TrEMBL record:
Keywords, alphabetical: ATP-binding, Kinase, Nucleotide-binding, Transferase
Molecular-function annotations in GO: ATP binding; protein kinase activity
PROSITE patterns: PROTEIN_KINASE_TYR
Domain of life: Bacteria
Similarity comment: Belongs to the methylthioribose kinase family.
Record-given protein name: Aminoglycoside phosphotransferase domain-containing protein
Signal sequence annotation: none
Pfam family, one: APH
Domain Aminoglycoside phosphotransferase positions: 28-257
Length: 334
């Protein structure tokens, strides 16, 4: 099995595929930050590409195993979102290799930055948040227009179970027993709710921001036909976390979290039923997961995680009636 993080191995592999010329020595750089894949940037005479290889054991402190065959789902997901969204809103798919759990895509030219880094650096803007909401809403609405074709392709929940429902929800229920009944009921509801294509990692770390503030969506390995409320709730949990973390812009970021929620709901309307209540529940569960699940947010220390978990549990017990009320309740005491 090739190891793409070894430059000599990857260079030989790309030469064998005819991507890199025999006499050429490409520039290869391992990209860090992800836990589920080996990811490498390759720059050569023909341009730049990103090569990803799925891991069987994630790079986190607790054991987390997922079949690397999911690489095929990510390749299919990338091709699907590339077709659904406007040109340039995803990388372009290049090739896949089932035998080595590899797929490749075009590299997004520099300069760019992740929305996560911009937010943590205090550089969030209303424009970025509105475009974040618009991109998510477009993905959900456009997929629904092609439901007959997409639903059977993404009907399996296997990887959503192993990468979200178990490590985010079921595991968190064992760590926060006072929220266990709430979480298990949400797991059951989520399995039953199948409305449109769900990315399941539509978060600021998977959004690249270009110099003109256009956004590019990355990482498609948990795509499934499910409840769009999960995407919105997970994204909102991350925006709330950034609000708590970036004290100097807390009032602005709380307003941005409310803006994100309102912009998304305005664009989808009643398409997906009683959506707001489901988003509230997913946002609470995802926030708990990011401080008590298998992969906690790295920018909080343990006392901060404990405080966030306690505040989230308080809200689980009373369930705010609106997303605005949820944002206010989770951010006002920090």
């Amino acid at each position: 099995m090739i190891d793409i993080e070894q430059p000599d191995q990857l260079t030989a592999y790309l030469r064998a595929r005819g991507i890199v010329a025999a006499e050429e020595q490409p520039n290869i750089r391992v990209l860090t930050g992800g836990v589920a894949n080996k990811t490498v940037l390759v720059e050569h005479a023909g341009g730049g590409l990103v090569v990803k290889q799925a891991l069987g054991k994630f790079r986190v402190k607790v054991d987390w195993f997922v079949q690397p065959e999911r690489s095929a789902l990510e390749a299919l997901g990338l091709r699907t979102y590339e077709a659904l969204l406007p040109a340039g809103r995803t990388p372009r798919f290049l090739f896949e290799d089932f035998d080595h759990f590899i797929h490749a895509m075009t590299a997004i030219p520099q300069p760019h930055e992740t929305l996560k880094r911009l937010l943590l650096g205090g550089q969030g803007t209303p424009t970025l948040i509105e475009r974040f909401a618009a991109l998510m809403a477009a993905s959900h609405l456009r997929a629904l227009q092609h439901a007959d074709a997409l639903r059977p392709q993404f009907a399996s929940l296997d990887y959503f179970e192993t990468q979200r429902l178990e490590p985010f929800y079921a595991y968190t229920a064992t760590q926060v027993p006072e929220a266990a009944d709430f979480i298990h009921a949400l797991i059951d509801e989520t399995r039953r709710t199948q409305l449109t294509l769900v990315h399941a990692d539509f978060t600021p770390k998977n959004i690249l921001v270009l110099p003109d503030d256009q956004l590019v969506l990355l990482d498609f390995e948990i795509v499934h036909w499910g409840d769009p409320a999960f995407d919105v709730g997970l994204a909102l949990a991350h925006l709330i976390a950034k609000t708590i973390k970036v004290e100097a812009r807390r009032a602005d970021y709380a307003a941005y979290a409310r803006l994100f929620s309102a912009a998304y709901l305005e664009q989808v309307g009643n398409t997906f039923g009683a959506l707001e209540g489901r988003i509230v529940r997913h946002a609470l569960a995802c926030l708990l997961a990011r401080v008590r699940g298998r992969s906690p947010l790295e920018y909080f220390d343990e006392p901060q995680r404990a405080a966030i978990a306690a505040r989230a549990v308080d809200q689980v017990m009373q369930l705010p009636p609106t997303l605005h009320a949820l944002v206010d309740a989770l951010t006002s005491l920090f």
